[in-house]
Structures are given as C-alpha cells and as structure tokens.
Amino acid sequence: MDIVERTVEKGVVEERFDLKVDAEVVPGIRWSPEAADGPTATILVGHGGTQHKRVPNVLGLARTFVRHLGVTVLALDAPGHGDRVTDPAAAEKARARLQSRIAERKGAMELSAEEARAWTERTRAGVVEWRALVDDIEAGGRHDGRLGYWGVSMGTAIGLPFVAAEPRVNAAVLGLAGLNARPGAADFEAAARSLTLPVLFLFQWDDELMSRESGIALFDAIGSKEKTMHINPGGHVFLPQFERAGAVEFFRRHLVEPG
Amino acid sequence: MDIVERTVEKGVVEERFDLKVDAEVVPGIRWSPEAADGPTATILVGHGGTQHKRVPNVLGLARTFVRHLGVTVLALDAPGHGDRVTDPAAAEKARARLQSRIAERKGAMELSAEEARAWTERTRAGVVEWRALVDDIEAGGRHDGRLGYWGVSMGTAIGLPFVAAEPRVNAAVLGLAGLNARPGAADFEAAARSLTLPVLFLFQWDDELMSRESGIALFDAIGSKEKTMHINPGGHVFLPQFERAGAVEFFRRHLVEPG
Fold first, then answer.
1. pTM for the complete prediction?
2. Which of A151, B25, B30, B233 could form a disulfide with B15 if both were Cys (CB 3.0 to 4.6 A apart)?
3. CA distance A199 to B77
4. Of A212, A219, A249, which is closest to B231 when you measure between CB atoms?
5. 3-state class (DSSP) for residue B132
6. Residue A213, SS3?
7. B211: which DSSP letter?
8. Among A212, A216, A227, whose Cβ lies nearest the Cβ of B233?
9. Gap between the Cα atoms of B139 and B61, Å rounded
10. B146-168 tens-digit pLDDT
11. CA–CA separation, B153 and B33 (whole Å)
C-alpha cells in the first residue's frame, strides 16, 4: 500500500492509502495506535451500501477498536463506493432509492438483471480486494497474524464470502443480512454453512429490508460452532451504538486475548 | 436481614443472612466490595430450578458483578430450594426428572395438577420474597437506589413477574424461558408485555426445554423499548460463560454508568 496522507488524533494514527489490485487503485484508511512499538492484531471494517471507508460509523468503530483493543483497523472503499464513484448522479439516485425502500418497508431491493450482474461483480471484486489487502499487510511487517473482520449489510454481503474463502481471518462480526432471493443466494448460503470461525451476528428486529425469518435463517445456517446472535429493536440503520462494546468484547475474546 | 456469617475473599465480602418474610425464614447471601465506603448499586440474582443461592454460576456471577461493577449482589434460596428443601428425596427426584427431560429433549416439563399449583404458588411467594428483600435493603442504608435483577430459567419464571410488579428495578437480565402453556401463562405473557425497563434476554438455540419459537415469542412480547436478545448455540444448561461479560456491560450501561 502507498500511504498518501497521515494525521494523528488523540493517540490514533490515521493514514490514507492506495492499494493496487490488478488495474484498480483501491483507496483505504489505516488507523493504528500511536503508542504501538511492534506488530499488532488487525481488524478489517467493511462499510454498508451507499457508504464509504470513512462514514461516521466506520470511523467511530475504528477509533474504538484502536483505543480499546490496541489493534490496527483497515477500511477500503468498496467497488463503486466512496472515492470510486464514477457517476455521482447515479450514486445519489441509488442512495435515494435505498432510503425510500427503507421508508416504505419494502424488503430487500428488487434488482434489474443489470443490477443483479453489478451486485455479483461487486461481491466478487470486493472479496478479491480484501484478500489483496491481507496479502499486503502480511508482507508489510506490522500485522502480527491475528485478523478480524467487521461488516454488516453490504459489509456482510461482501464480507461473509470473504471470510468463508479466507482462512487467515480468525473472527468476524456480521449482520443486517439474511437468507433470501438475492443474486448468488445459493453461493451465499453455502458460504455461510462453510464458516468455522467465531461469528457475532447482529440483527435489527424491525429491519425494513430483511425479514426476521431471513435473519434467523442466516444465523441458523452459519456453520461455526462459536456463534452468537444479538437482536435489537429498530430499523436497518439504527444498530445501537452499544453494539460497539459488544464487538470489542467479542474481538477481545477471540482475537486479542483468546483462551 | 440478620447476618449469620461473614467471610472475605479477594476483596469480596460474603455474608449469609436470614430474611423474615411473614412466617418464613428465607436464607440469602450478600456479596459486596470490601472497599465500599458508602451505599452502592445492588443486583439481585435469582437461581434456576433445582439450584440454590450459592451454586457455582450464582457465585461466579456475584463475584464478577462485585469486582467489575462495584455493586452489591444479593441471592435468596427460592421457595422449596437450597436450605428450604423440606423433603430431600423429593428434591432429588425432581432434579433427576429435570435432567432426564433435558437428556430426552422433551420440551417443558409436563406438570400434574398438584405440580401446577406448586409452580404457581412458588412464583407468587418468590415475588413476595424479592419485594420484601428490596424493602429491607431500602431501609438498611447500604443500597443507593440503583437496582438490577439477573435470573434465567426459573429465575425468569419468578423474576419476570417480579420486575414487572416492581418499579424499583431499573434493568433486568432474563432468559432461558419462552411463551408456552405453563401454569399462569397468560399472566406471564401479560407481565412481559407490561415491562418498560431495559432487558437483556439470553436464549440457547438448542434448549431442550424451550422451543426457539417460544423464546423468540417471549422476546417479541417484552414491552420494553430497550431490549436485546442474545442467542447462543447449545442446550439449556450451557449458557456460555462469556455472557457474564455481556451482563456486566449491560448493567454498566443501564445501572452503573447510565447516560
């Protein structure tokens, strides 16, 4: 990765970097403890649909993980998101459409054939990019081998296949997702069933996009012996902030102080 | 309460006490921080069926709450349990029956008419005794008014009606229970719907005594705006020990450092 900017705030170093993956330049951010004097554990954070690598929730999570766990946190702009938006008007339209979908409680987005292809391609590319990032940090000497992943909603749509395909990930927080008739649903379910790493699965009881049954079915499908589902009232974008503390405890147990 | 014995271990004072409730003497234990120099918050811990006030899980929880939250913890022997067992052979028979019920995955115990009456009476008396204990600590000068309750299985069968009837309780951990055709089921469901305090609801995904549907229905029925359900794989008696840390975080948020 090429570091393009570096700032320090309250003990947290924040570095903007570019990662080359094939012909793409993927922009990312690394947050790390200013006090670190050697390699640390790493947590990857995948943002949600229409979001980017530095939305308030990702930034808040990153700072919380760095400060409470002493780990390094990495986030990437997902394909077609953040600095990788090539058609701002289309991105704005997608955001508005998702918001109205939530407002009207219409369930998962109905996709045209073209959108379904784009969804499948985004998932494929997203997985490739996370794996390239893990290769990069393994070569960089600052990662000690303990690796976690946090991502809900689109962060699970991409992150679940990623952690299923990536034995180097030791523990994952997933959520705001379910088993339903999305493009690649059979592959997604197979990936869930193949999981063996500890999983914390977050779900919103009044999610406008995911039915309760679909969320419970996904939790049930997850193959991991160590898995916990946290259900809270409220809609898709109202995951309670205290679930950050839950994620800290989860990563402390399985990543930072296992056993 | 009358203190009948006092020991100190690793900063935790443990006091056996007797509480007079009408004609009954209810034996209890108080655990408190040795370093406390004034009133503290209090957490009541209700044990499960066939257990007593000092089974390993109650003791472990009590010491965890005292050490991590600086609170005082109180436990009572439920009616007909612990030092209040009047017919040891019958108690042993009940324990064996419950264990075989779990081993055979037979669902909630089938109760005779006499057992159903005993269940209803135990719940009624248990609620009266917890309320008497709260009156007692309010008069005692060592309780600062912040009050929590932790109890699963029979600790919810008694504890849910208790916290529903007792506005002095500020936050409750409940679980290993569901909505099903037990004696007093309609009253139990009504109590659940009337709840307004923050609730953490613990459930085991492979509970031999409670169906998944009944547990989810109970979580759904709980009227509180602030409620979270934690689901873990495993049977009725295999609630993961890490849920102690979850309860600590829950009581920290709602009892010890609210807002």
1. 0.94
2. B30
3. 37
4. A219
5. helix
6. helix
7. -
8. A227
9. 25
10. 999 999 999 999 999 999 999 99
11. 28
| CB-nearest partner of A233 from B216, B227, B249 | B227
Q: Do the Cβ atoms of B68 and B62 come closer than 8 Å?
A: no
Taking the Cβ of residue B232 and every Cβ of chain A, the question of whether any pair is shorter than 8 Å is answered with: yes
Of the candidates B16, B22, B20, B3, the one whose C-alpha atom is nearest the C-alpha of residue B52 is B16
Bridge partners (DSSP) listed for residue A44: A74, A149
d(CA A238, CA A206): 10
Q: What is the pLDDT of residues B100-159, one digit of tens each?
A: 888 887 777 677 888 888 889 999 999 999 999 999 999 999 999 999 999 999 999 999
Q: Which residue has the tokens 């921080």?
A: B33
- What are the b/e assignments for B127-166, b being 16+ CB within 10 Å? bbbbebbbebbeeeeebeebbbbbbbbbbbbbbbbbbbeb
DSSP secondary structure code for residue A184 in this structure: T
In the structure encoding, which two tokens stand for residue A131, read together? 């794996």
Is B231 near chain A, with CB under 8 Å? yes
- What number of C-beta contacts closer than 8 Å exist between A and B? 40
